[in-house]
Amino acid sequence: MLKKNKGIIFSICTILLIFGIGSQLVFSKGKNVASNDGVDLEYAVAKVLSEMPEITINQAKTSRVVDIESVEASMDSKKAEFRLKVQNEISNLKNDNAYLERTAVADTNKYLEAIQIAKEIYGVSVTQEEVNHYIDKNVTGFVNSEKEEYAKALGLSLYELDYSFDRDFYVMDTLWDKLIPVLMERYPQEDGEDNNLYLERIKKEFYSNSL
């Protein structure tokens, strides 16, 4: 039980599902096609890139970003919009572009809000070096055919995909990795409280500090 054992932390995947922000690859692991009515990843990426040719400009950096800019600068609503459009194509969801653009902006603002609340209310922030370390430890070792296909479709190396293009995901993962233990200390789990309900309560407490 978390209240009695501070060393036990929920898996990052569970945490991110509850909080609704963090890493989320646009493809499903182990599948090239999301549904019988959808399209494959390579086609989807190519189609969306034709509509947003600017998306990979300045994304493919040849060196890792280390304290050159704030982590907030890693947040990019256009990349979020691109990913939503790719998922829209893969899953044949037929959401219109205006809706996807609004959703991307809202999601990006949510990322930025979380970074600000964490820093100003809970004293938790992350550096670019910490993000690099997180990617080193948790991301680069995961390679499958879909990830390789995604990088190739974008015209990026796996290195560029992990350390640059998808960096915004890992900024948030790194932040929550540091923040969750602080929140658990501030808001202890009650006896008999369901784990998922506990995380929902932490989420509510966190965002009640909206600045």
Record keyword descriptors for this entry:
disordered N terminus, globular, mainly alpha
Characterize this entry briefly.
With 211 residues, this protein is mainly α. It has helices at 12-19, 41-51, 77-91, 97-122, 128-138, 145-154, 158-165, 167-186, 195-207.
Number of helices: 9
Low-pLDDT ranges: 1-9, 22-36
Q: Which structural class do the helices and strands define? A: mainly alpha
Global Rg:
18 Å
Describe the model:
With 211 residues, this protein is mostly helical. It has helices at residues 12-19, 41-51, 77-91, 97-122, 128-138, 145-154, 158-165, 167-186, 195-207. Helix 2 (41-51) runs parallel beside helix 6 and helix 3 (77-91) packs across helix 4 (97-122).
Furnish the topology, listing elements before pairings.
Blueprint (H helix, E strand, L loop, with lengths): L11 H8 L21 H11 L25 H15 L5 H26 L5 H11 L6 H10 L3 H8 L1 H20 L8 H13 L4
